[in-house]
Each structure stands twice: as C-alpha cells, then as structure tokens.
C-alpha cells in the first residue's frame, strides 16, 4: 500500500468526481496473490494508527484520527508489478480481479470500522487522481 499525506485529494472517472477528501491520507491499494481478508484488516488497522501528521513540536506523532482526517482509498493493481528486470512490468503477482475487489472492499470496511471517514475510487476503472501532497510525505506501508 502506498500512502500520501494530503491537504486534499479527489478521484474522477469519465470526468465525474466520485470521491474527495480534505486533509488526510490518499491510499493506493494493491492486492497480491496470497493476500487474505486478514491482510486487509491488519493493513487498515496499521494505517489508521500510522503517525504521519505533525504534533505541536512539528514531529510526526499524530495519526489520521488525531487530526480528524479522512482517507481516499484507490485500488491500484500496478503496485503488484514485478519491475526487477526488463523494461516492461509483469503482473503475475497481482491478485485476480475478483479477489482484488473483495479485499479492497474489506480494507475500506475495516477503515470505516475504525470510525475514519473514507471516500473511494472505483475498482477497475480508468481513474484520474488529483491531490495536493502535504510535505511531500509518501510512504510504502507493508505488513
């Protein structure tokens, strides 16, 4: 999962705004073969507690809930690409679309269970993502 601390972000499909947030986290979610519902739950739990927002001293000690932030979750199977050799990515490690959708939805529901406002992209769609990265602050978050 790739996360970016943002001042605002939105996602469009065919020119229609389908999800937007103010301050919070833009999260690109890639599902790989072998991932399970528990993987989605644990990543959501880790994300909501991940301290990437500044406290009064300017240190990253606050999580998305501490700042009343939101999450924009966007599915992105290309995160599962194998880029180790050649000049073209391979996607054999990406989950099949049915599993990808199921685990993406499980991740979103797990975030909501933590009382975090969540907007989403549209799984499998051609999306345009607009954001104002705050910092910039970007992390690859893994289990």
UniProtKB/TrEMBL annotation:
Subcellular location: Cytoplasm
GO CC entries: cytoplasm
GO molecular function: D-tyrosyl-tRNA(Tyr) deacylase activity; Gly-tRNA(Ala) deacylase activity; Ser(Gly)-tRNA(Ala) hydrolase activity; tRNA binding
Entry's EC annotation: 3.1.1.96, 3.1.1.-
PANTHER family, per database record: D-AMINOACYL-TRNA DEACYLASE 1, D-TYROSYL-TRNA TYR DEACYLASE
Task performed by this protein: An aminoacyl-tRNA editing enzyme that deacylates mischarged D-aminoacyl-tRNAs. Also deacylates mischarged glycyl-tRNA(Ala), protecting cells against glycine mischarging by AlaRS. Acts via tRNA-based rather than protein-based catalysis; rejects L-amino acids rather than detecting D-amino acids in the active site. By recycling D-aminoacyl-tRNA to D-amino acids and free tRNA molecules, this enzyme counteracts the toxicity associated with the formation of D-aminoacyl-tRNA entities in vivo and helps enforce protein L-homochirality.
Protein family according to the UniProt entry: Belongs to the DTD family.
SUBUNIT field: Homodimer.
Name of the protein in its database record: D-aminoacyl-tRNA deacylase
Taxonomic lineage from the root: Bacteria, Pseudomonadati, Pseudomonadota, Gammaproteobacteria, Oceanospirillales
